[in-house]
Design a protein that fits this description.
Layout lengths: L1 H14 L8 E9 L2 E9 L5 E4 L2 E2 L7 H18 L9 E2 L3 E3 L6 E6 L4 E6 L7 E8 L11
Antiparallel strand pairs: 1-2, 1-9, 2-3, 2-4, 5-6, 6-7, 7-8, 8-9
């Protein structure tokens, strides 16, 4: 009888364990309303997260060629700076990543599609959702082709 009680307690505790974050890499970008963002995210085997999302804002009046140059510059900055991005812990509830003890979503994972959405906060504005697609390896250009 005692053995059954111990097994039940262990089963309950195992059911209450925190879900493991998905391991992998994601990248993508956002360009709208005078804002450009490029982003990379990697969840390591130990659950630590590396994330970088350089941005530029206030490009509403930029000419198309200037806008394209800024996209290319941000992509180059992202690629060249990636090695200096340190892994950090995040709380993960099975869908949403938050800073430890935090409330605001930082990244949201869709298990069915393996798509990650980076919730980027620029200034005092509401979060800007930046869709990231899963990749086997990072690219010099994080923008989806096609």
């Amino acid at each position: 009888m005692r053995r059954i009680a111990v097994l039940l307690v262990l089963a309950v505790l195992a059911g209450c364990s925190k879900p493991a974050p998905p391991q992998g890499r994601w990248e993508g970008g956002y360009a709208a309303n005078g804002t450009i963002i490029v982003a990379r995210m990697e969840v390591e085997a130990d659950g630590q997260v590396r994330v970088s999302a350089p941005d530029i804002t206030n490009l509403q009046g930029a000419r198309p060629e200037q806008f394209q140059l800024e996209r290319e510059k941000l992509a180059a900055d992202l690629a060249s700076g990636w090695d200096s991005v340190a892994p950090r812990p995040f709380d993960f509830d099975g869908k949403t990543f938050r800073k430890p003890g935090g409330i605001a979503p930082q990244m949201v994972w869709d298990k069915a599609s393996n798509q990650m959405t980076l919730e980027l906060y620029i200034g005092a504005n509401p979060a800007l959702p930046v869709p990231l697609r899963p990749v086997d390896g990072f690219h010099d250009n994080p923008w989806p082709s096609g």
